[in-house]
Structures are given as C-alpha cells and as structure tokens.
C-alpha cells in the first residue's frame, strides 16, 4: 500500500531537485524546464520565487540563492553553496541520525529502503556519534504497530476492537484501510469506517485487537484523506460549543486545546471551544476543579453538577463495612 504524499512533501522534493537541474542548464526556457519537471509554468515560477528566500543562515546578501531572468529564460547566478559536498558538525550529524531513525519508525513510509540507505551512510560518516545512546520509538507498542502495518499492506479490510476515549467506550467496527501516518507523537490508521460511513482516524495504541478479513479493502470513491496540516482534531460548527470561565491556574488549556475565542476579563478569561463529545468534556472539566467554571451549554452544566453531587454523596455515605479493630478485617 503506497503512502499518500502531501503537497508540501511534493514541493520540497521539487525544490531540492530544482537548483542542480538549473545549474546544469543555464539560460533554459521556463516552459522547457516546466515540461521536464512535470509542473505548470505558473507552479515553476512560484517555486523559483520561493528559492529566492532560501539559502544559508544569516539570510543576507551572498547567503541566499539568486537567479537571473532574461525574457522567458532563467539562470542560477548564486547557488549558496548547494553544489558543495555536505559537511556536518557533530550536532548536525546526530540530529540527522535521530531524524532518520524516527522516519524509519514511521508507519506507511513507502521509501523505507532509501531511508535505511541514507541512514547507513550518515551513521558511517558520523562514526562514534552513531552509537550514541539515543532510542527512537513511536509511542505505541512496536509489535502492535508492526502487525497493523503488515495488515494494512495486505490490502484487506480489518475488523477492529477500538477504544474511543471521547466517549469512554470500546466498539467493534469493520474498516477499509487507506493509509498509516504519524501526527505529532502518535501513529494512526486512517480508514473508511463502515459503521460511521465516513473516513476516520484510529490511534494505533487504542486498537485493542484486530482481525484481517478475507475481503479486499475498498474505500468508496468519496473517501477523502483528512488534511493533517492543522493536526488531527479540526473543530467545525457542527460540534458542541462549550463556554468556560477560566482562572489563572487553568489558562494552560488554551495552549493545549483548540479554542475559538478568548476574552480577557479582570481576574479570569472567558473561553469558548468546540468538543467532539459532551461526555468527554464533562470528565475533562470536572478534573480541573475550581480553576474552571462551565457556563454553557446548559446540558453540560447539569451533567457536571450531577457528577459533583454524586462524588460528594460518596464522601458523605457511611462505610458499608467497618474494619474490626481486633482482627483488622
């Protein structure tokens, strides 16, 4: 199963190839270069404009890539050292080793052989640094991650036993895998969920069990991969809107969770945010205690009030069994 490439990844590959291509062809016509690189003239000109602000740290005169346009032709006049052999200092070499080890651990990478070859070359050049005690592992059971990856590569549908944290429940569902990817620090399976009749993201560490079915994975034509540029959770107007009054001790939630609006008032902030499930919001906000006061929606306010009263009743109720002082039982 091939990995779906993102537009940013495609553009990075073009830019890395563009400078040596133009260096070998001074004065080439833009139309000819666009045809060779399989892009439109407009896209090529946009790539060239981006190259103008790329170069070496310092980013002043003599540091940036420069080029000259003569009519419809283009020539690289300063390559900012891109044609020189790469020389890494110890910190740079170690950073590349760690990054490539992480990339090799990433599920769904189609060019794994190329990654391993590049890693072997850099480890050889880095010498003793390559043996530094740096372990790179994704935050999911490696055996499970490898097993799910192999199941996805089989091209068949899967039956999942999946824990949904937002609703605090475990469900069974049949899915048609589309790709595996890593977002932030978590590995995900993206698939068409037949139960939800929509594309869904399944965190690998929340898949309790799975079975490979004897039928091919066939996502419908309308199954479109999610745009991960802004993360997994993309709040929309269809989700419940929660309104909070947050004291100083709870302001950290505006940095860790997507919020729609923050109004600073004396001594507190008025925060509005979208949530996928009011049950999850209840459990999350009760745990914040007095740092947060929920003002809406009314059903969430009532759920939190009921949960708080139930907790107080547990403290107030006498113990059903008292220990015998003589026996300790």
From TrEMBL:
InterPro entries: CBASS_pafABC_assoc_protein, PafC-like, PafC_HTH, WCX_dom, WYL_dom. Residues 241-312 form the WCX domain. Residues 10-123 form the PafC HTH domain. Residues 145-212 form the WYL domain. This is Protein pafC. The lineage of its organism: Bacteria, Bacillati, Actinomycetota, Actinomycetes, Micromonosporales.
